[in-house]
Amino acid sequence: MIARNAIYRLGGISLLASLLAVPSVHAADADWLQKGSRKEVKVFTAADKKAKAEDEIDRRGKVTIRRLIPKCPSDWGNDPTALPFLLYQLSVRTDGEFPNYVDNAGLEITSEDIFKYPIIYFTSHFPFSFTDEEVLNLRKYLERGGTLWLDDCTGCGPFMDSVPQNVQRIVPGSEMKLMLRTTPEFFDLYNMVFPFDGVPIVGKEQFCRPLQAAYVRGRPAIIFCPNDYGCFWEISTPPTDLNPMGEGAHGYLDEGGFKCRDIVYQFTINWLFYTLTH
Questions:
Q1: Higher local confidence (pLDDT), 23 or 48
Q2: Disulfide engineering: 244 pairs with which of 6, 12, 24, 190, CB 3.0-4.6 Å?
């Protein structure tokens, strides 16, 4: 069921060395060469991916996640390739059985558009505080069945410190539960597609902590990831057959982190299935 090869195949570009040996160049040829030297070469980036027209009209039946833009100062758009390539890996690893909709632009938290998406995502390196208007809209969103993923982009520090009070404002009186395999309601999370005995071990100890969940009407609706999974999803080069995950944008391959990134993709795909079915 799980595909092992990426679907991207990069075409090779060859240069004719003999051109350099031509003793004289006609004016037309010289003009062509000059224009070519000035032409901007398009560089692949997940941010360039355009949604198909039919996807813009109908998002139903597609797995999708949208970023959030808070009113407070924030680098909410960091790791720009993270979400597109998480959804790409979902498609590759399930043989395309789960079509996805990619739109990497951020949504204002107070926007009605957040209700179009089952999962919304917020990450940053810095502390944050939602406005009263944002809190009310998020509360309404969660009560209607949506899920909010909070991803600490450092694995420690100010973002993490901001989570408890903001969660309490959105869901007063809620308790953040550790999402452990030994907890009955989270057992499926560790067995949906890829089996895990516990929280994946992904390098440094600070990136190996359990996710936490706050409940809304008996459902884990706010997920806090202290492990900076967005940085593991992110890539710096497109996937190829030889490197189906692409190179990590933070040099994880140089640190022997290829296996770590694969485990994070696996665990997150489990979480996606869990969230969409619970």
A1: 48
A2: 6
